[in-house]
Amino acid sequence: DFSALIYQIASIGSRSFSLVALVAVFTGMVMALQLAVGLGRFGLKLYVGQVIGLAIVRELGPVLTSLMLASRVGSGITAELGSMVVTEQVLAIEAMGADPVTKLVIPRVLACVISAPLLTVMADIIGVYGGMAVAVMEAGITSKFYMDQILKTVILEDFSQGLMKTVFFGFFIGVISCYQGLTTSGGTEGVGKATTQAVVYCAAVIFVSDFFLTKLFLLL
Predict the structure, then answer these.
(1) pLDDT over 90, % of the chain
(2) How far is the CA of 13 from the CAs of 40, 42, 207, in angstroms?
(3) Side-chain half-sphere of 127: how many Cα atoms within 13 Å?
(4) Cβ–Cβ under 8 Å, residues 116 and 66
(5) pLDDT surpassing 80 at residue 1
(6) pTM here?
(7) How far apart (Å, rounded) are the C-alpha atoms in residues 104 and 123?
(8) Residue 178 predicted with pLDDT over 80
């Protein structure tokens, strides 16, 4: 159902935007602060922008965005579906002849797959500008030089690889969260337990798959 998909995407965006933006801007700022000090010891403050650009676009943007998605959206999906299981709404859907997977799971998984890259693009941009604000003050470089260094260093391949990771991360988040929700048992206490497990499993899968996806993309 296309309308259900659009609703889920809008719901994910509204729930995640502010949290992802907050994490992204302070990640960029902290990186700039640390790099200004660390690279400054070797007289390499000029390279702050290059390092921030590569780190955020290739790794930090995709991974941190996906972790926020798992904690904010994944937990919500699990709690929502878990509550439907406990209150026997899922059984009612089956009794009406509808497939719970088609009606409940597919729109949520697709919404996670679509939303993760979109949120990552936003996080990359905000993180880079957050880093620029601190780099100008702490590293003594101009904003134009900072952006020029990033544009010269970060290539389309870096950006696309980061976004491709989030497609996989979004899929994992959606599937794990839906599975944990639909297999909930034990009443309201079970819903809380399933929600916690979903976030933990999503985080673990994101970190493990990040290594293998990075290795795969480097080989291509």
Answers:
(1) 79
(2) 38, 42, 23
(3) 30
(4) yes
(5) no
(6) 0.92
(7) 28
(8) yes
Give CA torsion, residues 96, 99, 104, 110, to 10 deg: -150
Give domain limits for the chain.
2-219
- Residue in the block written with tokens 């403050």: 45
Nearest residue to 181 (alpha-carbon basis) of 111, 105, 112, 102: 105
Gap between the terminal Cα atoms of the chain: 36
- Number of alpha carbons in the 13 Å side-chain half-sphere of residue 71: 11
Tokens of 155: 């290539």
| Token pair 């509204």: residue | 14
Q: Do 198 and 176 contact (CB within 8 A), yes or no?
A: yes
118 membership: H or E segment, kind and range: helix 106-138
For residue 136 the two structure tokens come to 């100008």
Both structure tokens of 64:
């941190």
Of 171, 161, 194, 1, the C-alpha closest to 69 is 171
Q: What does the DSSP assignment read for 10-37?
A: HHHHHHHHHHHHHHHHHHHHHHHHHHHH
pLDDT of amino acid 44: 87
Tokens 């880079």 belong to residue: 128
User: Which residues 6+ apart lie within 8 Å of 18 measured at CB?
Assistant: none
CA gap 135, 36 in Å, rounded: 7
Average pLDDT, integer, range 193-217: 96
